[in-house]
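User: Please fill in residues for this 485-position structure.
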C-alpha cells in the first residue's frame, strides 16, 4: 500500500475513533453496565489511532471534540468503578428512604400507644414475623426451582411413580447422542434429527416435555402405550424403534430417521400422476398394514402426515400415539372395562371411518385402518384431501356418519381396477369391508406386485413376515381376524 492511501485510511480510522467515543458519551446510558464494557475498547481504539502523527490530521474543532468525549468516557468509567467498589450514592439514598419509611410507620401509630411498652413490643413482633414470612417465601421459591435437579424419585409421589414406570422399560437406554435440526411435530412432542455418537448413525428423536406435573401421569401412560406398540414391531414398512431415555422434565424416544420426509410433504407439490408409483406405494402400505393387523395392532390414525419415506423411497408407518394393542398370542391385553368394542374416537376426521364417527362396533380386523388407507390412496391419486369440497369438520363427520364415501377419482385419474380397489376400502359395513390381507390379492395390487422386488426386512427375525404375506384364507389370517372381532 502506498503512503498516500495508508495516510488516507489512517485518517478515516481516526475519525471513526472519534465517532465511537462520541457514541458512548451521547447515546449510551451512563448507568448501564454495557456502556462500561463498550467504553473500554472505544478508549483503547482512540488511543491507538491518535498516537504519533495521526492526531495532527484533526482540525481544531475535531480535536476539541475528541478531548471532551474522551473526558466523558473516563468519567463514565470512574462512576462505574465507584458502583463496583464502595456503596454508591444511589444505594445510600435507598437506605435513607428505607429508614425514613420505617420511622414513618412508627409515627403513624398514636402517640399515647407509643408510651405503652406492651403495644410497642407487639408492633415490633409483627414486623419481625412479616420479615420471617418473606424469608420463608423466598426459600420456598428457591427450593421449588431446585427440586427438579438431582432429587431421588419418591414412589409415594404419583409423578415420581409415573417416571419410574417409564424408566423401568427394558428399552431404556443410555448412549451418547447429539441433537440436530427440527424435523416436525408428533402426537405429544417435537421430532429432531440426531446423531448416535457411539456408532455414528443418524436417527430421529422425539422430545416430549413434561411441563405440567398434573399431566405427567397421563402423558407417561400414553408414552408407555406407544412404546408398548413400537417395541414389538419389526417390518420394513414400519419405522424402527431404538429405545427411550427418561429425564425428570422430558422424555426422548429414539427411532429410525427417514430423510425422505412425509407423504404429506410430497403431496404438497400435487398429485402423483404416474399410477404405477401410486400402486407401489399402495402395495407397501398394505404390506405394513397387514403386518400390523396380524400383530394385533390397529394404527387408528393413518394419514399422509404419519407416513414417511426413507432415503430409498420406502414407505414407513410412524406415530403410534393413537394405536391400540388389541390382542396378541390369543390373549386380550386390555382390562375388563376395555373388553367391549373400542369406541373411542381417535384420529383425523377426514380420514375416519363411519363406525369410528358413530362409535359403533369396529367390525373385522383393522377395518378402521382400511378406510383410512383408502383415503390416503385417494389423496395420492387426486392431489386433494378427502372431503375437500366441504368447508368444516362437522359437515365432514356428518357425511361420513351417513355412510357416504368420499368422491372417487375419474377414469382420467385412475384405472377401473384402481377405482374398484377404493370401492372395497369404502364399504360402509365394517364387517363387509376387505381386510389388508385380502386387498393384497386384489388385481390392482397383484399387477404391480409381480413387477417389483419386495424390500428386505431390517432384521433376520422379521424377514419372513415381509416376504410371505398370508393368504386371506390361511389359518394365520383367520386367527388374526378372530382376535380383532
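Assistant: Residues filled in for all 485 positions:
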Amino acid at each position: 500500500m502506498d503512503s498516500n492511501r495508508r495516510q488516507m485510511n489512517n485518517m478515516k480510522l481516526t475519525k471513526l475513533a472519534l465517532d465511537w467515543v462520541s457514541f458512548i458519551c451521547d447515546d449510551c446510558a451512563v448507568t448501564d453496565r454495557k456502556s462500561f464494557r463498550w467504553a473500554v475498547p472505544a478508549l483503547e481504539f482512540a488511543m491507538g489511532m491518535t498516537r504519533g502523527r495521526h492526531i495532527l490530521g484533526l482540525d481544531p474543532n475535531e480535536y476539541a471534540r475528541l478531548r471532551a468525549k474522551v473526558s466523558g468516557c473516563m468519567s463514565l468509567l470512574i462512576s462505574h468503578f465507584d458502583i463496583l467498589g464502595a456503596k454508591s450514592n444511589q444505594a445510600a439514598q435507598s437506605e435513607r428512604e428505607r429508614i425514613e419509611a420505617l420511622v414513618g410507620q412508627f409515627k403513624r401509630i398514636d402517640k399515647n400507644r407509643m408510651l405503652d411498652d406492651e403495644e410497642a413490643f407487639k408492633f415490633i413482633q409483627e414486623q419481625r414475623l412479616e420479615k420471617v414470612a418473606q424469608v420463608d417465601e423466598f426459600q420456598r421459591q428457591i427450593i421449588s426451582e431446585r427440586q427438579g435437579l438431582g432429587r431421588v424419585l419418591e414412589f409415594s409421589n404419583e409423578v415420581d411413580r409415573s417416571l419410574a414406570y417409564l424408566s423401568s422399560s427394558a428399552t431404556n437406554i443410555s448412549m451418547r447422542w447429539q441433537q440436530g435440526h427440527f424435523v416436525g411435530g408428533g402426537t405429544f412432542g417435537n421430532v429432531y434429527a440426531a446423531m448416535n455418537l457411539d456408532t455414528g448413525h443418524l436417527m430421529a428423536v422425539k422430545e416430549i416435555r413434561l411441563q405440567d406435573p398434573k399431566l405427567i401421569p397421563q402423558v407417561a401412560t400414553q408414552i408407555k402405550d406407544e412404546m408398548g406398540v413400537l417395541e414389538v414391531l419389526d417390518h420394513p414398512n414400519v419405522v424402527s424403534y431404538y429405545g427411550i431415555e427418561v429425564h425428570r422434565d422430558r422424555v426422548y424416544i429414539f427411532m429410525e430417521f427417514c430423510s425422505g420426509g412425509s407423504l404429506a410433504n410430497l403431496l404438497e407439490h400435487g398429485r402423483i400422476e404416474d399410477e404405477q408409483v401410486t400402486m407401489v406405494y399402495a402395495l407397501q402400505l398394505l404390506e405394513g398394514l397387514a403386518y400390523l393387523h396380524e400383530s394385533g395392532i390397529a394404527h387408528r390414525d393413518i394419514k399422509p402426515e404419519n407416513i414417511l419415506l426413507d432415503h430409498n423411497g420406502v414407505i414407513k408407518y410412524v406415530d403410534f400415539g393413537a394405536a391400540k394393542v388389541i390382542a396378541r398370542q390369543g390373549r386380550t391385553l386390555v382390562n375388563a372395562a376395555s373388553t367391549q368394542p373400542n369406541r373411542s374416537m381417535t384420529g383425523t376426521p377426514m380420514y375416519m371411518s363411519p363406525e369410528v364417527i358413530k362409535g359403533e362396533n369396529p367390525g373385522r380386523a383393522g377395518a378402521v385402518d382400511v378406510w383410512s388407507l383408502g383415503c390416503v390412496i385417494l389423496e395420492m391419486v387426486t392431489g386433494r384431501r378427502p372431503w375437500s369440497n366441504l368447508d368444516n369438520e362437522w359437515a365432514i363427520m356428518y357425511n361420513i356418519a351417513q355412510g357416504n364415501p368420499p368422491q372417487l377419482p375419474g377414469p382420467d385419474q385412475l384405472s377401473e381396477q384402481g377405482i374398484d380397489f377404493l370401492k372395497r376400502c369404502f364399504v360402509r359395513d365394517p364387517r363387509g369391508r376387505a381386510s389388508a390381507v385380502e386387498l393384497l390379492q386384489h388385481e390392482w395390487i397383484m399387477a404391480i406386485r409381480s413387477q417389483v422386488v419386495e424390500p428386505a426386512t431390517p432384521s433376520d427375525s422379521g424377514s419372513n413376515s415381509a416376504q410371505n404375506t398370508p393368504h386371506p384364507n390361511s389359518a394365520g389370517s383367520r386367527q388374526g381376524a378372530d382376535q380383532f372381532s
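For context: The CA atoms of residues 279 and 447 lie 9 Å apart.
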